[in-house]
Design goal:
215 residues; four-stranded parallel sheet; 8 helices
Length: 215
């Protein structure tokens, strides 16, 4: 299964036809983020056969110049609060310096699928495209990754991401659960969860190349 096949398959379904029609109208009326050419960026950067790790986010950043199709990643500019906390854990877990960029494309190119559950948002209106069809599509994505023969690490931060657990075979894949890195919840167990080193330890134990997390 490759992403193009999945997208073509889903495009034929009523929910996706409705989603496309909804997005066309939204694009006429509002500034929708990320830009059209970036909305499926995570699939372009991380082909299906290269997926080793999945980090599930909720919906794109809603401020201008940030969202570019990868969960938790910013194309340029200031780091949002959740990303700052991810980087705090990154430093504590790996002993690395504070990242010079919030752009996580280098992770994506190594097989880290940075998947938001909802792939679009109206500028300055968080959650504005929830329950319009994206969730059905991204669930199909998770189901297809679950079918992979090679084990995959699923990093599930917060209750929203953890709602995908029933669709993941925990005997085959490795699930890392922690609270969301949001300032509201990071102190409840996100800090100290060591997701980066645990991911690499698992990958190496399965004979797979670890992720170079350096940013």
């Amino acid at each position: 299964m490759i992403w193009d096949d999945l997208i073509k398959q889903e495009l034929q379904k009523p929910y996706f036809i409705d989603l496309v029609a909804f997005l066309k109208e939204e694009d006429k009326k509002h500034l929708v983020l990320p830009p059209k050419e970036m909305r499926l960026a995570c699939f372009k950067m991380t082909p299906y056969d290269k997926v080793k790790v999945v980090i599930i986010g909720q919906d794109p950043y809603h401020n201008l110049g940030q969202a570019h199709g990868l969960s938790f990643s910013v194309e340029k500019g200031d780091y949002p609060p959740s990303l700052k906390n991810i980087f705090q854990e990154y430093m504590n877990d790996l002993g690395y310096a504070y990242p010079k960029t919030g752009n996580l494309s280098s992770w994506a190119h190594q097989g880290v699928l940075l998947l938001n559950t909802v792939l679009t948002v109206v500028a300055h209106q968080p959650m504005s495209h929830q329950k319009k069809g994206w969730e059905t599509f991204t669930l199909e994505v998770v189901k297809q990754i679950n079918l992979k023969h090679e084990p995959v690490v699923f990093i599930l931060w917060g209750a929203h991401a953890q709602s995908f657990m029933p669709y993941i075979d925990a005997h085959k894949h490795f699930i890392l659960k922690a609270p969301h890195p949001s300032p509201l919840s990071a102190h409840r167990g996100f800090f100290g969860s060591k997701p980066f080193s645990k991911t690499n330890h698992f990958l190496v134990s399965k004979g797979l190349e670890p992720i170079d997390w350096t940013l």
